[in-house]
Design a protein that fits this description.
By secondary structure, the chain is an alpha+beta fold. It has helices at 36-42, 101-115, 199-209, 213-228, 234-244, 253-272, 283-297, 305-318, 322-332, and strands at residues 15-18, 28-30, 51-61, 64-79, 86-92, 118-125, 130-143, 147-158, 165-173, 178-179, 190-193. The protein has nine helices and eleven strands. The radius of gyration is 22 Å and the shape is globular.
């Protein structure tokens, strides 16, 4: 399924959410805020013991079977949370060092202790290859007196070598539930840790870097307020869209058609969508029209409307549209 939440043969799923059910309706919903220990246990993330195992290749010939060593790669293996059996998650290089789910939770637990944040969600994606935990910071920013923006810290980790341990600071606009990730001047919104032998030490360093979280919230609120106070015309928005998705006279007809379709969708969101009703005609509305398009409207793969909607929802979880949204923020902010 497009949500890629790990599901088990006993009917349970590796996902937990505090107080609110997720769009995929899987996993456990708690009545209260989560502790790190609750998140790990209820999302079936504890006790994986991710480790590295030597690899061998088998060559079959007319003379028989030959077992060959694979010296420069190893298999990343976990203990399955339900069966207790070893399970391969991926093939990694010689410098790869696992970051255990417990370390992942310990990092966020440290931030929770320092900030008063509480855990919101946790889960396993792609059959254990990627895991995530998120927590909600206690303060809510208010843009223009009515547009509430909550601030979350989300940490993602992969066990198959596909990505580093990544921490992002994520403002979410409550009205339309868009996830807005933006790089801000003089504020650190993300930190990446490679899976190497020094990874644990760099996670400790990341704790200090993300001490700028409240500075980030302050800068985001100021920038958003400036955008809200700045008028934006449809023509000005078109200039931003053209810079985000440029086309040239030599481009194919298909690319030009896609650009025209994309622009019509963003213009409609900017000029007519209910999600922009209270902020219409501002630079903040222009930015939100772009992020709403990138997360929820842009074409998605799938053989049915449900699968396409699920794929769009997965963009928010995985941060697929982050680059576009960050560039849009830089172009629109004043």
């Amino acid at each position: 399924m497009a949500h890629e939440i790990e599901q088990f043969s006993d009917g349970t799923a590796a996902f937990v959410s505090a107080r609110e059910s997720a769009w995929h309706r899987l996993g456990t919903v708690t009545a209260d805020a989560l502790t790190a220990e609750d998140a790990m246990r209820l999302a079936a993330l504890d006790g994986w013991n991710v480790r590295l195992v030597g690899l061998h290749a088998t060559e079959l010939t007319a003379e028989g079977t030959t077992l060959l060593d694979v010296p420069n790669h190893r298999a990343s293996v976990r203990t399955h949370p339900k069966t207790g059996r070893p399970e391969t998650l991926g093939v990694v290089g010689p410098d790869y060092t696992p970051v255990q789910n417990e370390e992942h939770a310990e990092f966020l637990n440290f931030l929770a202790d320092e900030s008063g944040a509480h855990f919101e969600t946790a889960g396993s994606l792609r059959e254990g290859r990627q895991v995530f935990l998120t927590m909600k910071l206690p303060q809510t920013m208010t843009i223009g007196g009515s547009d509430d923006v909550d601030l979350y810290i989300a940490a993602f980790n992969s066990h198959d070598g596909s990505s580093a341990f990544r921490i992002v600071v994520t403002p979410v606009r409550v009205v339309c539930a868009n996830t807005l990730r933006a790089g801000l001047r003089n504020a650190k919104s993300s930190y990446t840790v490679r899976h190497t032998s020094g990874a644990r030490g760099r996670i400790a360093q990341a704790r200090q870097v993300l001490g700028l979280t409240f500075k980030y919230a302050e800068e985001f609120e100021k920038a958003a307020q400036r955008m809200l106070d700045t008028e934006m015309t449809t023509r000005a928005l078109r200039s931003v869209v053209d810079e985000l998705w440029p086309t040239a006279d030599s481009d194919s007809t298909r690319k030009k058609t896609n650009q025209a379709t994309r622009w019509n969708s963003i213009r409609s969101l900017f000029e007519q969508a209910n999600t922009q009703a209270g902020i219409r005609g501002t630079a903040w509305a222009g930015y939100n029209a772009i992020t709403e398009y990138a997360n929820h409207v842009a074409p998605a793969r799938g053989s049915s409307p449900d699968l396409k909607n699920a794929a769009r929802a997965e963009r928010v979880i995985s941060g697929t549209a982050d680059d576009v949204m960050e560039r849009a923020f830089r172009l629109v902010t004043v």
